[in-house]
Amino acid sequence: MKLFVFGLGYSALHFIDRFGASFETISGTVRTEEKVQQLASDQITPLLFGPEKEDPAILDWLGAADAVIVSIPPGVSVDPVLSRFGRRIAGLHRPQTIIYLSTIGVYGDRQGQWVDESRPATPTSERARTRVQAEKSWAALGKSKEKNVHVLRLAGIYGPGRNALVNLRAGTAHRIIKPDQVFNRIHVDDIASAIAGALAYDGRNEVWNVSDDEPAPPQDVVTYAAELLGVTPPPEITLEAAEISPLTRSFYAENKRASNLKLKQELRMELAYPTYREGLTALWEGGEGRL
């Protein structure tokens, strides 16, 4: 199988690191010439796809691919991949399978209730509304051209270099208290397994939530990370008093628990890190956050 990836970023590169040996060729896009130089190897052919310049070879590699992973988020009002390559993809016999990486943010605020894939998307932020539109557009392309388009709705991603252990050492971790608030999260290794499962799935045009078993208060995650490191956790503060970015603050406007039952049943997935405890413990044992 030949693979093409729109957006060779954090999640996609972890997938390639784990499963890349199973592909005949791997090509994909990056935003800068620097990234082209960093990623070029016998395993990966990186191609420039930026706002002002793109590698014309993208069309050749895309046309030869059996499967495509799309991990580039939509812009302000349009999906850049669909805008630039949607018609090309629709007109090709290949690729036959497309995996679109979306977000559980499309469900909006559910006041802490559980939500599964049978529930309608009710986005409350503009970035989530653009995600919903992108999901619909990719699904429509799949149905009209008889391609398998699967959507993975990802929870908050953590893993090597991106976790509460690193944030504590950097002094950027907060214990923000908002009563009954929980966040959903997923280890990047489990995302890789979900992508692999979706590529192998014998079915058409499915949607799966990719989240761990335990949506949890964010302050509990920081406290557990501090215990692993043997340090005092940062003091508890209210959301109103927290000095955080508008983007981070906006996450607290939504509260939901994303069910992963469909993912486990249909893709027969067993999470490597079913809660943040297993995930952070493994990261700590691997040296994350150590001085």
- DSSP strand tally: 13
Unreliable parts: none
Widest sheet: strand ordering: 3-2-1-4-5-7-11
CA-CA gap between termini? 42 Å
CATH superfamily of the domain at 2-157 and 186-212 and 256-271: NAD(P)-binding Rossmann-like Domain
Q: What is Rg?
A: 19 Å
Classify the fold: give the CATH topology of the domain at 2-157 and 186-212 and 256-271: Rossmann fold
Strand content: 15-25%
Instruction: Provide the succession of SSEs.
Output: EHEHEHEHEEHEEHEEHEHEHEHH
Helix/strand/pairing category: alpha/beta
Helical residues, percent: 25-40%
Sheet with the most strands? 7 strands, parallel
Q: Count the helices. How many?
A: 11
CATH class of the domain at 2-157 and 186-212 and 256-271 equals Alpha Beta
Q: Shape, please?
A: globular
Mean pLDDT over all positions? 96
Instruction: Name the CATH architecture of the domain at 2-157 and 186-212 and 256-271.
Output: 3-Layer(aba) Sandwich
Keywords: Isomerase, NAD
GO molecular function: isomerase activity
Organism: Beijerinckia indica subsp. indica (strain ATCC 9039 / DSM 1715 / NCIMB 8712)
Protein name: 3-beta hydroxysteroid dehydrogenase/isomerase
For this entry, give a set of tags.
7-stranded parallel beta sheet; isomerase; two-stranded parallel sheet; globular; 3-beta hydroxysteroid dehydrogenase/isomerase; NAD(P)-bd_dom_sf; alpha/beta; 11 helices; isomerase activity; Rossmann fold; NAD; 291 residues
